[in-house]
């Protein structure tokens, strides 16, 4: 079985069993933006061992890893044979705190950590801003440096090229358009077309810079599933989407 690491979101994680059935050969790093992944940790942040009310343990662990910058060490220690990237979690804005960055995810919003003194001077960086774009390009350069300097350079890089769905399929099989604007989380909304353009920029830069294997589901499968176990969302797809991606990963050498 391949030792897989995912730097991405549930669209890739859901290809593997969830919970107790999950293989130990899988490392899942989520709720982080590429710039936040390569930032240094936020000075003075105090994190807890147990999740606060409203967050599952894996959700809390993702927040802590993003704030304390634990993911890269875990990634190197995992010694993956394959690293799969998807950039769906780039939907979140960044928070600048001094010279450090954090991902402003829903999980961070409800964790209680934003009330800590260490985060009081935070400055938002909108995900569609020029500043974000510059930070993302710099982070991509840092990723390449880490790949060259560590054994991660031996892993096969795979880019799961995803786009937000613009249509949904209901339980009765009927297909309908999604609204052009959707909620990322309460108080934060996003334009689907604008985010798809952002994703294409990130994906094109990543592919050109790293030479990663590119996989992408057929556009006809890019349908939101009204009955998805995580709820209706432009990036919670119908079952056939995941089957197609799983097939392409197998062709790219990922052994299940």
Q: In words, what does this structure look like?
A:
This protein is 34% helix and 20% strand. It is of the alpha/beta class and 256 residues long. It has a domain at 4-162 and 210-219 and 243-251. The strands form four sheets. It has a five-stranded parallel sheet, sandwiched between helices. Helix 1 links the parallel strand 1 and strand 2 (26-30). Helix 6 packs parallel to helix 7 (192-210). The longest helix is centred in the middle third of the chain and has 20 residues, at 130-149. It starts with a strand and ends in a 5-residue tail after the last helix.
Brief characterization of the structure:
The protein has a domain at 4-162 and 210-219 and 243-251. 34% of the residues lie in helices and 20% in strands. It has helices at residues 10-13, 34-37, 57-68, 71-78, 106-111, 130-149, 192-210, 239-251; strands at 4-8, 26-30, 82-85, 94-97, 100-103, 123-125, 156-160, 167-169, 175-177, 181-185, 188-191, 213-215, 224-225.
Integer average pLDDT: 96
Radius of gyration: 18 Å
Low-confidence stretches: none
Report the biggest beta sheet as strand number plus sense, adding barrel if it closes. 5 strands, parallel
Write down how many β-strands occur, each being a DSSP E stretch of 2 or more residues: 13
The topology string of helices and strands comes to: EHEHHHEEEHEHEEEEEHEEH
Structural class: alpha/beta
